[in-house]
Input
Amino acid sequence: MKRVKVAILGAGFIADIHLESYERFVPEAEVVAVYTRSAEKAKAFAAKHHIAQHFSSIDDLISNVDFDLVDICLPNFLHKEATLKAAAAGKHIIIEKPLAVTLEEADEMIAACENANVKLMYAEELCFAPKYERARKLVEEGAVGDVYMLKQSEKHSGPHSEWFYNIDQSGGGVLMDMGCHGIAWFRWMLKNNKALSVTASMKTVLHKGRTKGEDNSIVIIEFENGVTGVVENSWAKQGGMDDRSEIHGTDGVVYADLFTGNSVLAYSKNGYGYAMEKTDTTVGWSFCMFEEAFNQGYPQELKHFIDCVQHNREPLVTGKDGRAVLEIIYAAYASAGQGKKINLPFSQQAEKPIDLWLKP
Output
């Protein structure tokens, strides 16, 4: 089958991750061009990854390159423009988190892709991370009984690029940067069960002189099916990256730590597995292995979207999922700003989500 031609927009940290994923794990794709706002940086990135063409104008790339989809790895405030231009050119789109800065931008982007009949995938890698997927399958196999609480946390001492600290470019702080992962993973685990309310607490702890954005946040989400989700995020945590999840059920618990060990730690009162596959060895504490691959799921999500383009399938995670995550983020900022629980659906106009906290 013909390889899918990819144009990557961006040349920063996440673009490097995506390129390495394509090169090592997605032979069905060929990255044919790169865009970034700096011509010098675009040239250097192209040379580093042996990409044939490089541009400092999206319009020039679209006009001069034969390609099938764009992989958007740009700062948040550039997502809308890039998406609208790609959709107008009839190109499929995979876009890094968050989907957009505002709900209005998200709606415009989703509508543009639907009108152009192009696919829009929200690149939430936790829905593809091998450990997290092994944990999800344990739940499906009956390991923990009925789930009543999900927890996810991602913490480190601060992001790699300066624009993250500029709330006019990012739209918010650590919640916009990393909280979107936990929220999306909750919805993935719960098959997009409706979120009913959000309660949040946030503050700026470590980076007060660098940003107006929050660098530590705790968000509690109550879902229609009775499950409570707790997402914790921090740019103030010392000692390196921490990314883990917990699944609590009536018959067991599962812990998945992306960066420690090579297994999921689980406790099951009754054992797990489908039908006759259940054995005594799965009762109690066990270490559940996962396939060797990038821990965070980047190559898996990219490979999935390439397959969707090749076979005309709908992505498992779409722009509408990204929009739903953004709505919960809005409610979390409003909750922290007003000091109360916010019910969903939630809609309040704001120049950027963090204004609901800074200017309640």
Residues 274-279 have pLDDT under 50 and may be disordered.
